[in-house]
Amino acid sequence: MLIRRPTDILPSEITPRAVYLSRRQWMAGAAGLTLAATLPKGLEAAPLSATKSPFSTDEKKTSREDVTSYNNYYEFGTGKEDPAAKAGSLKNSPWTVKVDGMVGKPAEFAIEDLIKSSALEERIYRMRCVEGWSMVIPWVGFPLADLVKRVEPLGSAKYVAFETAYRPEEMPGVQSMFPVLDWPYVEGLRLDEAMNPLAILAVGLYGETLPNQNGAPIRLVVPWKYGFKGIKSITRISFVDKQPETSWNKQAPSEYGFYANVNPSVDHPRWSQATERRIGEGGLFVKRRPTLMFNGYAEQVASLYAGMDLRKLY
């Protein structure tokens, strides 16, 4: 893997190369969008009751405005503002999540049943994007391990694959003549990663159900990994015996590894990962923050990767 450490990140490098090169193609059609598109179709925002979690950080939370308006969700466009402007087209109710593969109890869960049957927690986590920026987000969700135990994985199951909804009629980015990725979006974890207490399925943030642009109605949150591992709007979870072929790793394997653990000593080929910009911290004298190994969660997750060469298995 090519490693270099530039002192600054060029604007063109903050977005993956495939996105940057195709951006001019879709910008011409974006000018007519209005904020009316942000109105959700289906499950309206509703308050969620959640207990506090000892896994939460006490760092200052990123504002709700920033969390819900500065997003990557390429099914709705490649600009940071596109998800908030366009994701209102996604009908998030009714919604089901199919769980299949190497399990003893395959099932299809309605999102309402998942929420009602789960002990929801508020998890205030750091989120580090692979692009070099970060947030602190108060998620509401439940441990992924709870769902894993519920479906009883077979001994042959080694990985968990996740799939985002594929709805071209509701997702303008999927309809693009210049697709960024092969759709639907796919992500994956090793089974032991999925069982780690930090991994959650989030159904809300800031005490309410998720906005569409943040992955409504259910998404994955794995805070020790780069943000692209946090797959949104999940419709299928499959237990498999081989490493899933995940979307960004398939698109650019030299840039986006399967593990995608936050690691300040392993740079992206086009920018340094040693520091990050915390969204919401503006001003002339604000400096970039040092990035922490495993995004500051090494105590909870480092043992998962004992003996692995994390420069090669990035």
From TrEMBL:
Q: Spell out the InterPro entries in the cross-references.
A: MsrP, OxRdtase_Mopterin-bd_dom, OxRdtase_Mopterin-bd_sf, TAT_signal
Cofactor(s) listed: Mo-molybdopterin
Q: Which PROSITE patterns does the entry mention? A: TAT
A molecular function annotated in GO for this UniProt entry is: molybdopterin cofactor binding
Domain (Oxidoreductase molybdopterin-binding): give its ranges. 92-248
Which Gene Ontology terms describe the biological processes this protein takes part in?
protein repair
Query: Which leading EC class covers this enzyme?
Result: oxidoreductase
Write out the entry's keywords from A to Z: Metal-binding, Molybdenum, Oxidoreductase, Signal
Q: Which residues bind Mo-molybdopterin?
A: 71, 74-75, 129, 164, 214, 219, 230-232
Query: Reaction(s) catalyzed by this protein?
Result: L-methionyl-[protein] + a quinone + H2O = L-methionyl-(S)-S-oxide-[protein] + a quinol; L-methionyl-[protein] + a quinone + H2O = L-methionyl-(R)-S-oxide-[protein] + a quinol
Q: Tell me what PTMs the record reports for this protein.
A: Predicted to be exported by the Tat system. The position of the signal peptide cleavage has not been experimentally proven.
**Free-text cofactor note:** Binds 1 Mo-molybdopterin (Mo-MPT) cofactor per subunit.
Classify the source by domain of life: Bacteria
- EC number(s) for this protein? 1.8.5.-
List where this protein forms a coiled coil: none
Question: What this chain does, per the record?
Answer: Part of the MsrPQ system that repairs oxidized periplasmic proteins containing methionine sulfoxide residues (Met-O), using respiratory chain electrons. Thus protects these proteins from oxidative-stress damage caused by reactive species of oxygen and chlorine generated by the host defense mechanisms. MsrPQ is essential for the maintenance of envelope integrity under bleach stress, rescuing a wide series of structurally unrelated periplasmic proteins from methionine oxidation.
Q: State the similarity comment.
A: Belongs to the MsrP family.
Under HAMAP family, the record lists:
MsrP
Record text on subunit structure and interactions: Heterodimer of a catalytic subunit (MsrP) and a heme-binding subunit (MsrQ).
Full protein name? Protein-methionine-sulfoxide reductase catalytic subunit MsrP
Origin organism of this chain?
Microvirga tunisiensis
Which gene is the coding source of this polypeptide chain? msrP
